[in-house]
Amino acid sequence: MDGVQGQTIPEYDLTGSPQAWLDSHPFSIPGDTLPGVPQFRPARGLSSPHAQTAWATFFPGLLPLTETTERRLRLDDGDLVVMHDDFPQDWRQGDHVVLMLHGLCGSHRSGYMVRLAARLQQRGVRSFRMDHRGCGAGTSLARHPYHAGRVEDLAAAVHMIERLCPGSPISLAGFSLSGNLLLRYLGEFGADLPLSLFRAVAVCPPIDLHHCSSMLNASRMGQRYDSYFARRLVRQLSNTPQWREDVPLANVRRPPSRLYDFDELYTAPASGFESADHYYERASAKPVIGQIRVHTTILASQDDPVVSTHAFRGLQLPPNVTLCLTQHGGHLGFVGRNGIDPDRRWMDWRLLEWLLD
User: Fold this and answer.
1) Separation CA 307–CA 311 (nearest Å)
2) Does one domain contain both 99 and 201?
3) Is 2 a domain residue?
4) Per DSSP, which regions of 102-188 are E strands?
5) Same domain as 184, residue 105
6) How many domains, the chain?
7) Measuring CA to CA, how many Å separate 356 from each of 33, 66, 171, 291?
8) Taking the model in full, what pTM does it have?
9) Which domain holds residue 274?
10) Same structural domain for residues 65 and 156?
11) CATH number (domain holding residue 106)
12) What pLDDT is recorded for position 28?
């Protein structure tokens, strides 16, 4: 792949106007990378991006999972994270494996994680749902916070899976903040990535963290999402080993109501960054996407109320990276109409195709 010149995505209108887009038909480099992707049409009554986002959150549609084993992974700094190993009975050494990474304030129990793991299990594919530092089953096992640039944690998880599943192709799926983490990992490691990596999919990734933070705070509804995440993060820290008295957050009278302020008061100083701006600059995936060498698909929605897709304007994509940008879908929603897939979870069925085929 070395020496292949990237191509630039034209300056299309990403504000929701359909003038240059047929909804969900992928804009890809090259154009025939993803043939036959069905059109995404939001379910009746769920055309609003907020309805899509809320429905996916409050109606996760969990599916049954069996044969799940918790495995602890010790990181280089001594922290532990938990990997949830979903092992199909008919899986054999050398068969496909998928590693999934949850979004901000999520865990291995997040609806999209459980649904995808169950669908993979039904196909005989082994999967690992990773709880980031301090999340899910690892709430009390880490002293340091997770963030959008913890590529070393993802690298350690991949190496663990290689040891457990020698000879197996490994696909990666990252959601929201972890979508950025995944892309950052793929681009930063470039040609030095393990040869076992087969496919990668990033869903609704905030590839320019500073821009996404600014856009989130630019509207009243965006401010509500901003406050929701910031306050959840503060509560998530309370009474855990991650709480620190030596960071500015410990001395404020009121908890921050913006993610930027939370990152300024906690994430940056607790992670060795000079400021939130420094963290955003070092962790954003946008500058390194052009260096990705693994076959990768990025799924995003123009009407995402949490992650702005304007960051994709003018982005240079290598031929092995495809952007599928839909007009509707909200944030991690993509709840479609009946008749296209076996159920209305359009996103799930596309991920199965992109991760395995």
Assistant:
1) 9
2) yes
3) no
4) 126-131, 170-175
5) yes
6) 2
7) 15, 21, 8, 22
8) 0.90
9) 212-283
10) yes
11) 3.40.50.1820
12) 41
Asked if the structure places residue 1 within a domain, the reply is: no
Give the three-class secondary structure for 160.
helix
Q: How far is residue 36's CA from residue 100's CA, in Å, rounded to a whole number?
A: 25
- Among candidate residues 154, 131, 156, 134, the one with its CA nearest the CA of residue 144: 134
Number of alpha carbons in the 13 Å side-chain half-sphere of residue 200? 32
Q: At residue 93, what is the residue type? A: Q
Domain check: are 156 and 250 in the same one?
no
Which residue, of 252, 283, 314, is where some domain finishes? 283
In this structure, are 52 and 113 located in the same domain? Answer: yes
Per-run averaged pLDDT (10 residues), the chain, 357 residues: 39 37 40 64 96 96 94 98 97 98 97 98 97 96 97 98 98 98 97 96 98 92 96 94 96 94 98 98 97 97 96 92 95 95 96 95
pLDDT on residue 35: 60
- Please name which of 351, 337, 345, 323 lies closest in space to residue 21, comparing C-alpha atoms: 323
Q: Give CA–CA dist 255/233, Å, rounded.
A: 10
Those residues with Cβ within 8 angstroms of residue 224's Cβ, 6 or more apart along the chain or in another chain: none
What's the confidence (pLDDT) of residue 11?
41
One domain for residues 279 and 292: no
Do residue 244 and residue 269 come from a single domain? yes
Token reading at 4: 């292949």
Q: Beta strands 7-8 and 316-317: pairing type?
A: antiparallel
pLDDT of residue 314: 86
Counting beta carbons within 10 angstroms of the beta carbon of residue 69, is it exposed (0 to 12), middle (13 to 18) or buried (19 or more)?
A: exposed
